[in-house]
Amino acid sequence: MAGNEHVDMSASGADRTAERLAAVPGIRRAPTPKLEQFMLPGFLDGETCAALIAQIDRDVRPSTIADPNGDEAFRTSTTCDLDHRDPLVIAVNDRLHGLTGIPREYGEPMQGQRYDVGQEFKAHTDYFDPHGADWETYCAVPGQRSWTLMIYLNEPGAGGATRFLATGKMHQPEVGKLLAWNNVRADGTANPDTLHHGMKVRQGRKYIITKWFRERPWPWAEGELG
Q: Which ranges in the chain belong to alpha helices (H)?
């Protein structure tokens, strides 16, 4: 597993994503040396968010985790594998790739998540454990995750914040707000300071979409990227 420890950020251009994001008007960079993280309010408009929520509601399934830890309540949300051939999904996906400067072949298909009252995703990282039992299943072809981009689609009545444990920062859901972070440290190893908790929704529902990027191309079927 030694070869899995260091992430190649240069092939996809993910090593230059922080510089690109820092130049975006209105974006805010987290004032911490522990991780590269950015927040951009109003990235998506309300109409686009509402259309994505409708897609999520139509196609949700129970959320899963890699390397199960025995805690059945660790992740209790539902997930939607968004239709990557849908024009709206294509448009949002292209904007995210344009924002990061990472070519489309290095991106996973976008997912949507829905959290009902009492549902959460306990403290976790988005990168995969290089020594985990499921490494070969999820990473043999595309390699490790580099950047995560997450967009809040609505504002639940109460709860549903995303808390980063290393900084103590609580990101509150706002319609269309984008949160981006690098899962990899400067030395090329996965960054445990990206540990974050999707906190319980106390009132209403919470919707987000998530886009993950990989160090090598995703195994898209021929012609799927146009």
A: 17-22, 46-59, 87-100, 135-139
Question: What is the CATH number assigned to the segment(s) 14-214?
Answer: 2.60.120.620
Tell the burial category of 174 from Cβ atoms under 10 Å away from its Cβ (0-12, 13-18, 19+): middle
Domain boundaries, the chain: 14-214
When pLDDT is averaged across residues 36-46 and rounded to a whole number, the result is: 98
| Residue 225: C-alpha distances to residues 11, 81, 107, 143, 163 (Å) | 19, 16, 11, 19, 34
Burial class of residue 215 in the structure, from the number of CB atoms within 10 Å of its CB (0-12 exposed, 13-18 middle, 19+ buried): buried
Rounded distance between C-alpha atoms, residue 130 and residue 88, angstroms: 34
Give the whole-angstrom CA distance, residue 127 versus residue 129: 7
- Residues 118-175: tens digit of each pLDDT: 999 999 999 999 988 889 999 999 999 999 999 999 999 999 999 999 999 999 999 9
DSSP letters, 99-123, are: HHT--GGGBPPPEEEEE-BT--EEE
Could you tell me how far CA 108 lies from the centroid of its own chain? 10
pTM of the complete model: 0.95
Return the H-helix or E-strand segment holding 98.
Answer: helix 87-100
Which pLDDT score, from 0 to 100, does residue 3 have?
66
The DSSP element (H or E) to which 175 belongs, if any, is none
180 beta partners:
38, 149
Tell me the angle at which helices 87-100 and 46-59 cross, rounded to the nearest 10 degrees: 120
